[in-house]
Design brief:
Blueprint lengths: L3 H29 L3 H17 L5 E5 L11 E7 L4 E6 L13 E6 L1 E4 L3 E4 L35 E8 L2 E6 L5 E6 L4 H15 L6 E5 L4 E5 L5 E5 L8 E9 L2 E10 L2 E8 L6 E2 L6 E4 L1 H7 L4 E9 L1 H15 L4 E9 L10 E8 L9 E7 L1 E3 L5 E5 L8 H4 L3 H14 L1 E7 L7 E6 L5 E5 L3
Antiparallel strand pairs: 1-2, 1-9, 2-3, 3-4, 5-6, 6-7, 7-8, 8-9, 10-11, 10-17, 11-12, 12-13, 13-14, 14-15, 15-16, 16-17, 18-19, 18-26, 19-20, 20-21, 22-23, 23-24, 24-25, 25-26
């Protein structure tokens, strides 16, 4: 017969394991699943350690606007202290009080705010950062609100999207532009100098259009030097235009956002090992300048290196140079392709150029350039066609040469005419180019004066 005491004992034995299991499960869930508030707290401490643990501080690739910014990207710099102090630096064009374009450092405060997520807030005025946030944009509307108080549409509260030991990705809390912090690998002024050197290597005031190439298509991008370029289907009168803002780096440049071309993603471009192209992360997208079009269209004179001339062109070149050197009052002659004009006036021709001095002192006052019309074009990428017509006109200075010499000029132009494969010493800012005829042994090297 089962007594009440035995029943109670049985119930305890059955219930106790279940209770223990329930307690164990509750403890495991609490151990592995933090509350949202606790998770933000832990991330805040982690971010604080990452921010401070940077001997050279951080490069801040800073963008403004809500995806339709009219501004380029800006390289700012920041060094954080645990006390809440931050030192920022930059040399951007919107620095105030006469400091535009000048390296400037400024200190202020920062705070890690715990909201739904984690926010890196620069909550006091900083001469380097705050001009982008200030609703009064002095560059556009002095002492007045600009764009109803949007100013440059910059953010000083940055929502942290991801963090690693050497990279922090944020979004502006108000305007949603990406801001990327990457741990600086050199001191700030060296970073600025190296970045400027790379910018000068890949852009120039003379060439500001580029081929952007994949295995499936080639398009053009225009305006890279300005830090905000457009991708289009043609250089002039584009059918399609997409704008991208970018920050230059010591190795190339990085766009504000990821984009695609021919099914390939790109975000950052770096110079490849041989310096021939900028390439994206996986090497599937390449960028080079439209240097071939520039060489075909420039009016700047490319001079001929006589020691590099080959084929039938060499005999014609040597004969013309000998005649020029023997002519009366013709000293130190040289031959080039470009525009013959020296000063303002109508006495200029685009094509073959002969330069000489009328006295042995070779002064600017005695420098003369004569021109013979020849047309240049680019039949395909990396090629140049030089065309000559028998009725090509000359300018007045060319007419001052003796008739026999002028006949040799025309003979040389006829020999020079043809289509050439071009090989430049740079696919970005060329100073020298080798021309090799596609259907003869004729070749020649052209160079720009320094």
């Amino acid at each position: 017969m089962i007594m009440k005491k035995d029943i109670l004992h049985i119930l305890i034995c059955v219930a106790l394991p279940a209770a223990l299991a329930s307690c164990s499960q509750f403890q495991e869930e609490n151990f592995f699943e933090e509350s949202a508030a606790l998770r933000v707290e832990h991330n805040s401490a982690k971010l604080q350690d990452i921010l401070v643990d940077a001997p050279n501080g951080w490069v801040m690739q800073y963008y403004t606007g809500d995806g339709v910014s009219v501004f380029e990207g800006f390289n700012l710099f920041a060094k954080f202290e645990k006390s809440g102090k931050v030192t920022m630096a930059g040399d951007h064009r919107f620095l105030r009080d006469g400091k535009a374009g000048t390296y400037t450092e400024a200190t202020s405060l920062y705070e890690l705010i715990r909201e739904d997520g984690l926010v890196l807030a620069f909550n006091t005025w900083n001469d380097v950062l705050t001009p982008f946030v200030d609703p009064v944009a002095f560059w556009a509307a002095p002492e007045n609100l600009y764009k109803d108080g949007a100013g440059m549409a910059g953010d000083q509260n940055l929502v942290v999207k991801s963090m690693k030991a050497d990279e922090i990705i944020c979004r502006g809390e108000r305007y949603n532009a990406e801001v990327r912090l990457v741990k600086a690998d050199r001191d700030w002024q060296t970073y600025i100098a190296d970045t400027k050197a790379m910018k000068e290597q890949i852009t120039s005031e003379k060439i500001n259009s580029y081929y952007i190439i994949t295995d499936k298509e080639t398009k053009f991008c225009v305006g890279l030097r300005d830090g905000r370029y457009r991708i289009s289907e043609r250089i002039k009168n584009p059918l399609k235009v997409d704008s991208l803002s970018c920050c230059f780096t010591p190795t190339g440049f990085r766009n504000e956002r990821v984009d695609t071309l021919g099914g390939h993603l790109f975000h950052e471009f770096k110079m490849n090992e041989d310096g021939s192209a900028l390439v994206n992360e996986d090497g599937t997208v390449r960028i080079i300048a439209t240097w071939d079009t520039y060489l075909a269209e420039t009016e700047e004179i490319m001079w001929m290196d006589g020691t590099t001339v080959t084929g039938d062109l060499k005999a014609s070149y040597d004969q013309l140079m000998a005649a020029l050197e023997a002519a009366d009052k013709v000293y130190a002659p040289r031959i080039g392709i470009g525009r013959s004009q020296i000063a303002t006036g109508d006495n200029s021709v685009s094509g073959l150029v002969i330069e000489w001095y009328t006295n042995k002192r070779k002064t600017k006052q005695s420098l003369t350039r004569g021109g013979l019309t020849m047309k240049r074009s680019v039949p395909s990428m990396g090629q140049m066609t030089i065309a000559y017509a028998e009725d090509a006109t000359t300018d007045n200075d060319m007419k001052t040469l003796k008739a026999s010499v002028l006949a040799l000029v025309r003979s040389f132009a006829e020999t020079l005419a043809g289509t050439y494969q071009m090989a430049a010493n740079s696919n970005f800012v060329p100073t020298e180019v080798q021309l090799q005829s596609v259907d003869s042994e004729n070749s020649i090297c052209l160079f720009f004066d320094n």
